[in-house]
Structures are given as C-alpha cells and as structure tokens.
Amino acid sequence: MQNEKDKLANSVVAHMMEHDAFSQWMQVKVLEVSEGYSRINMLIRKEMVNGLGIVHGGITFSLADSAFAFACNNRNNLSVALDVTISFTKAVIIGDTITAEAKEIHNGRSTGVYLITILNQKNEQVALFKGTCFRTGKKLV
Questions:
Q1: Which one in 33, 38, 78, 131 has a CA-CA gap of 20 to 30 Å to 15?
Q2: Using CA atoms, how far apart are residues 134 and 21, in angstroms rounded to an integer?
Q3: Pick from 135, 119, 137, 131: nearest CA to 39
Q4: Residue 10's closest CA among 41, 35, 42?
Q5: pLDDT at 92 over 70
Q6: Bridge partners of residue 79, in order along the sequence
C-alpha cells in the first residue's frame, strides 16, 4: 500500500507523462515511482540508431533525463536541470531494452542531486548519469 507521499509522486509523474510528447515518442514505460525515485524503461527501435549502427547517445541520455525529471519533480515542486553529466559505458543496439533508475542523493530546499544508472536487459550498465536540479517552488499539479 502506498503512503501519501508516494501517491503524490505517482500522480505528478502521471501528469508529466501525459504532457511529455518526447517520452511518449520514445515509448517510455514508468515502472516504479516513489518520493525522490523513479525507474523507467524503453525498447530501442531502428529509428534510434546512428550512422555507426549503435543507438544515438541522445536516446540513452534522454531516457536518463526523463528518469531524472520524474525523480526530482515528484514532490510536486517544479524542478529544472542545472547541470548533468553522462558516461557511456557500453554500446546499446536495436532490440535492447534499457532501464534507467534514478536515486536521490541530496534533497535540498533549492537543489537536488540524483544518480541515474542505465542498464540493458542483461543487467549490464550502459551509462551513468548524474544530475543536479534547481527547485523553483512552483507546483506542477
């Protein structure tokens, strides 16, 4: 049974997904949400591959960025990215299912820090993303 904070977190993420055309285009599936946390995944399709035959780095980045956004906004405090970094550790190919798990490292009054691990279906890490957000104090829902 969900507590009130996790109910709010899920409500905020549902609202975000409803209005997030890019995550919808990527066919992101929300797997789990709780306060300051999210886990999402997606299937890699042929239109996501670059000229080298591997997934475009922007796709992996975008999945991580969506997980980051869902985790840092789900307290219903509109938060925007201040700084993000990503390290790509393994190539992603057509047919892979990649999962991004965002964990809160710091929840401050005006900033938050999140570590997002991206794994493939073999549980191999394909990227590591770290994001810092700024909390605006405005409500999303």
A1: 131
A2: 23
A3: 119
A4: 35
A5: yes
A6: 135
Q: Which domain holds residue 20?
A: 4-135
**Whats the size of the chain, residue-wise?**
141
Measured distance CA(35)–CA(74) in Å, rounded: 6
**What confidence tens digit (pLDDT) does each residue in 32-90 have?**
999 999 999 999 999 999 999 889 999 999 999 999 999 999 999 999 999 999 999 99
Is 140 among the domain residues?
no
* Cβ partners under 8 Å of residue 102, min gap 6: 37, 38, 39, 64, 67, 68, 70, 71, 72, 114, 115, 116
Domain count, the chain: 1
Q: What are 80's two structure tokens?
A: 């925007």
Domain containing residue 95: CATH number: 3.10.129.10
